[in-house]
Every structure is written in C-alpha cells, then in structure tokens.
Amino acid sequence: MKKMSPTSGLFFLLPLTLCLSLHPHLTLAATNNAAAAPTTLNNAAAAAPTALNNSTSNLIEKACSGSRNKAFCLSVLKSDPGSKTADLKGLAFIALQAASKNATKTSVKIQLWLNDTEAEPALDDALSACDQAYIDVVDQIGDSVNALVSGANGDVQTWMKAAVADIDTCNGGVKGLTVTHAVELTKKNRALRQLCNTALGIVRVLAHS
C-alpha cells in the first residue's frame, strides 16, 4: 500500500507562488482607475462582495470568449474578488490559481485514500496511477504559471494540455469502478478538467490580444 509521499507538502507552495506572481496583474486595473477601490489577494478574503463595473464585466466576458464552457468560466472569474482589479493576464492567473488549489486538494485526497487498507486491488491500482498523474498535474500547472509570468503563452498552453491529458489518464483508470472513492474521483477529475480548460481558453484570448 502506497503511503503519502513526503514531497506532498511541497504542493502547498504553489498557491503562494501564484499569489506572488498574480499581485501586479490584479492591482493594475486599480492603478488605472482611481475611482476603483484597490483589492489585492491579501485582503480579498475579507472584502465584501460588490457588483462588477462595466469595464470589468466586459474584460471578463472577453477573457471567457474562448472557453468551451463560457458560463463556467464566468462563474470562476466572477467568484474571485481579485477579478475586480485584474487585467487580462491577471484573469488568466486567477483561473490557474483555481486549478492549482483544486488539483492540490485532490492530490492529497488520493494519497489519503491510498492509505485505506480496505481498498480493493483494482481501486488501489487506479489510485496509484492517479497519484502520479496528479503529482504531474500540480507540477504542470506550476510550469504554466512560470511560463505565463515570462509571457510564453504558447508554453502555458502546452503545459495545460499535458495536465488535461494526465487528468484523462487518471479518469480512464477509475472508469467503470463503482466504489465510492472511484465515483468521487471521477467527479473531481471532471471539475479539474473544466478548470484547466477554462485557463486554456483565457490564455488563448490573451495570446491574441
């Protein structure tokens, strides 16, 4: 039975990297618009939800115009307080951050399930494959962040497509299994896939702007 990897704690460093990289792009709109109240990642959690102004709404609409599921994309961006002061690149970071948090939580969940001594062999094998797949996904999202920081939008798309492929690999392993963990993981795979595709769509728009 595979035990939780000692490197799993490193997954929690990625959200911090995202926050540090995201800050300048979240605050750009506030700098350009003196009437807008500045909102950063540091105080976003405490900020009361407010209506988006027309300029911000239009930018979010533009960011989501290349997404396969536009309604989902709009929901992801509008639910993050940082979107009120983000430029287009900042919105891409927000989408990556959402994918990062989701992938990290699921990776940790998989490792906990691997410690279940009552898991049947078929599920155990599938979870082992998914464990490695999600380690790769977390790394690939981190590589995407680095590429976005440097303006290498093509590399962001390459890494995020690789992440989606790894999610699909995991999903193929649990497909057909009816035990609770497999069913739950299938749902988590679907959610993360949507988040990754949302980030991909925004980066495509950014690349053509």
Proportion of strand residues: under 5%
| CATH secondary-structure class | Mainly Alpha
- Structural class, by secondary structure, is mainly alpha
The structural domain count equals 1
DSSP strand count: 0
- Number of helix segments? 8
CATH architectural category = Up-down Bundle
CATH fold-level label: Butyryl-CoA Dehydrogenase, subunit A, domain 3
Report the C-alpha radius of gyration, rounded: 18 Å
Assign the CATH superfamily.
Invertase/pectin methylesterase inhibitor family protein
Shape: elongated
Give helix and strand order, one letter per element, not per position: HHHHHHHH
Protein name: Pectinesterase inhibitor domain-containing protein
GO molecular function, one term: enzyme inhibitor activity
InterPro entries: Invertase/methylesterase_inhib (IPR035513), PCW_Enzyme_Inhibitor (IPR052421), Pectinesterase_inhib_dom (IPR006501)
Organism: Rhododendron williamsianum
Question: What does the model show?
Answer:
Residues 1-12 and 27-50 have low confidence and may be disordered. This protein has one domain: Invertase/pectin methylesterase inhibitor family protein (Butyryl-CoA Dehydrogenase, subunit A, domain 3, Up-down Bundle), CATH 1.20.140.40. The chain is 71% helix and 0% strand. The chain has 209 residues and is mainly α. The chain contains eight helices and no strands. It has helices spanning 13-32, 41-44, 54-63, 70-78, 88-114, 121-149, 153-174, 180-207. The chain is elongated and about 55 Å long. The longest helix is centred in the middle third of the chain and has 29 residues, at 121-149. One of its GO terms (molecular function) is enzyme inhibitor activity. Belongs to the PMEI family. Keywords: Disulfide bond, Signal. This is Pectinesterase inhibitor domain-containing protein. Residues 1-29 form the signal peptide.
